Amino acid sequence: MCGIVGYIGNQQAAPILLDGLSKLEYRGYDSAGIAVYNGEEIITAKSKGRLKVLSELTHGGDAMPGTLGIGHTRWATHGEPSDVNAHPHMNKNESIVVVHNGIIENYLKLKKKLERKGYEFISETDTEVIAHLLDYYYKGNPLEAVTKIMHRMEGSYALGIIFKEHPDQLYAVRKDSPLIVGHTDGGNILASDVPAVLKYTRDVYFIENEEIVRMTDAKMEFFTVDEEPLEKESVRIEWDVNAAEKGGYDHFMLKEMYEQPKAIIDTFSPRLKNDGIEIEELNMSDEEIKAIRKLVIVACGSAYHTGVTSKYIFEGLARVSVEVDLASEFRYRDPIFEEGTLVVVISQSGETADTLAALRESQKRGARVLGIVNVVGSSIAREADNVMYTWAGPEIAVATTKAYSSQLIALYLLAMKFAHVRGKIDKKELMQMVSDLKKLPDQVELLLNNKNKIQKFANRYLAAKDVFFIGRGIDYAISLEGSLKLKEISYIHSEAYAAGELKHGTISLIEEGTLVAAVLTQEDLYKKMISNMVEVRTRGAFVLAVTNEGNAEVEKAADYTVYIPNTNKYFANTLAIIPLQLFSYYVSIGRGCDVDKPRNLAKSVTVE
Ligand code: F6R
Fold first, then answer.
1. Are 452 and 284 in contact (CB under 8 A)?
2. Ligand 1 — pocket residues by CB below 6 A?
3. Can you tell me the distance from the alpha carbon of 516 to that of 208, in angstroms, rounded to the nearest whole number?
4. How far apart are CA 9 and CA 12, in angstroms?
5. Mean pLDDT computed over 198-220
6. What percent of the chain is modeled with pLDDT above 90?
7. 219 in active site
8. Sheet arrangement for strand 493-498
9. CA-to-CA distance for 150 and 164, rounded, in angstroms?
10. Average of per-residue pLDDT values in the chain
């Protein structure tokens, strides 16, 4: 949550800061601000609302000349979105300015202490404490002041800091919030995430916990919290710059839905080798795979839903017992890790605070952790014992689509590999599955091209109050994701139910005309699902069915049916989710919602 940028060099800083923030707006978008040193003083501009308000206020940055600056886009945690709470924050005499991503957990205690020393606070933010604390410790040596505040602050932070007395330097520091830095042509840049710097550099340094960076226009130095110099290696980012642009689509979400076939291919291709599946990153011998007795899958939101899907696959196909948990719950229970437990954490951003905490907790208890991660070099990618990357490329829309689809592919590959090594499927069965897997990109494309029909259907439900998604087995997992997509971007209340559970209470909510989306991709469950559809239909529901081609029987119990191409039963999620993503997207734009940046949300949830 929140995005920070900073620049020092021979170019004008403000336009670079605004451009960088525009790539980070997915991290928070309730207010934004920049600070620039103009040769004499530090000038700030801040505004509530989207970045474009700030951009207009500063004439695209032209109104703020200077070659050193920092910027921020906010997702409010402490204090409502407002001009005064927007970052950057300054000390009283405006000689120190700071932007912050994260949460200072002991800020109240620090604030009280500073108030006793005469400091006055004008905002409700935890960040203002940092500016005053720096002021308190600054005695002419910025590095010393930065290390001193690091010893005092608890919580998470990525900071960009300017000291007016040192206008040839820009400071950055990180603890538990992402931060990268890189050299540009004639300067240096810092940011919370790679898309903000891609236009300026492809070689970035990932800053680790409690590391400090001092930049000038020509130099970049790294230090520990004890002021010891550090050597760091840069990492080359291979992403296509255009991947972070809309490229002619109305919204990132639509573009990213259309990128799903590519994300799927890019995720499976490198792992299909020698007539089989090779997942080198696993770094596990066949003996080690055979010795696995339990998988514990931990994630949040949509990533959690891919975990729920994979439970059915690992258990059904590979006969491995699976426990799936929400990271925010997992970290506060007392999990039992028997011998042979492999923990799998799934995350697009690789920065989700709860997932990262679950990873650390698992490692502390001696478990091996495999990360399935999209963002290269992210915290989870760096801390997991092994990393399997999903090659979806940068995902900008807050609602995940292509990263979700590529997570599914990574999990399919893993389950197929485990099933084969453990002798649950033979080579012929494996190769049949590989052949079905390779057909998925074209099948997804086919479904995407059906978008006009889905749009027409969606337009009938723009005023819906409640929508229910029901399914059994894998179809329940698909329902969870279908429901989340709808509610997060259209603000229509929706719930996903295991179809058999509906009559244990929830069915009382079904009224005349309530939309119930029933997912039926598992042939052995068709009959049971049809009974559940009839149950809601007789109580007035309008039933939308998503099912496999050839299941004409369903039409007896459905009011509207969307067919998906036939595939291996374990891969059905990849296809059935497409019409549900399209449905949510079109309901959202039909209702005039901000599809890519839904209210109250942020792409990367780096707070608990
Ligand atoms: C929903 C969505 C979220 C994320 C969740 C986990 O569309 O995107 O539910 O799936 O916040 O994020 P990552 O995968 O970055 O850990």
1. no
2. 300-303, 347-349, 352, 355, 399-400, 484, 488, 605
3. 47
4. 8
5. 94
6. 84
7. no
8. 493-498, 466-471, 515-520, 542-548, 560-564
9. 20
10. 94
Rounded Cα–Cα distance for residues 301 and 323 (Å) = 16
């006055």: which residue's tokens? Answer: 120
Helices 402-421 and 572-590, axial angle in degrees (round to 10): 170
| pLDDT tens per residue, range 402-422 | 999 999 999 999 999 999 999
Cα 58 from Cα 313, distance rounded (Å) = 53
Atom of ligand 1 nearest to the CA of 399: 7
The amino acid at 350: G
Which residue is closest in CA terms to ligand 1's atom 11?
301
pLDDT in tens, 341-397: 999 999 999 999 999 999 999 999 999 999 999 988 888 999 999 999 999 988 989
Extended beta strands in 110-179, E state: 155-163, 170-175
Mean pLDDT of 272-300: 94
CA of 538 to the centre of ligand 1 (A): 36
For the chain, report the end-to-end CA distance as a whole number of angstroms.
Answer: 11
Whole-number Å distance between alpha carbons of 30 and 28? 6
Whole-number Å distance, alpha carbon 105 to ligand 1 midpoint, is 24
Please tell me the predicted confidence (pLDDT) of residue 94.
96
Query: Using CA atoms, how far apart are residues 466 and 479, in angstroms rounded to an integer?
Result: 14
* Ligand 1 atom 9: residue of nearest CA: 301
Contact partners, residue 248, CB within 8 Å, separation at least 6? none
Please state the pTM of the whole predicted model: 0.80
Of 238-242, 510-514, 536-540, the least confident: 238-242
The mean pLDDT of 411-436, rounded to a whole number, is 97
Average pLDDT of span 215-235: 95
Beta carbons within 8 Å of 15's beta carbon, 6+ residues apart:
60, 61, 62
Considering only CA atoms, which residue is closest to atom 10 of ligand 1?
302
C-alpha pair distances (Å), 127 with each of 16, 97, 588: 23, 10, 34
Q: How far, in Å, is the centroid of ligand 1 from the Cα of 369?
A: 19
Handedness of CA 317, 321, 326, 327 (dihedral sign): negative
- Ligand 1 centroid, distance to 178 Cα (angstroms): 16
Instruction: Find, among 507, 518, 506, 466, the residue nearest to 487 by Cα.
Output: 466
Q: Which of 148, 417, 485, 603 is catalytic?
A: 603
CB 312 within 8 A of CB 477: yes
User: Residues 27-79: pLDDT tens digits?
Assistant: 777 899 999 999 999 999 999 988 999 999 999 999 999 999 999 998 877 88
Mutate to test the pocket of ligand 1, among 355, 376, 389, 400 (most ligand atoms within 8 A of CB): 400
Tokens of 477: 């997992």
Compute, in angstroms, the gap from residue 30 CA to the centroid of ligand 1.
19
pLDDT at 608: 72
Question: Is residue 545 within 8 Å of residue 520, measured between CB atoms?
Answer: yes
> Does the annotation count 164 as an active-site position?
no
What confidence tier does 176 reach under pLDDT thresholds 50, 70, 90?
Answer: confident
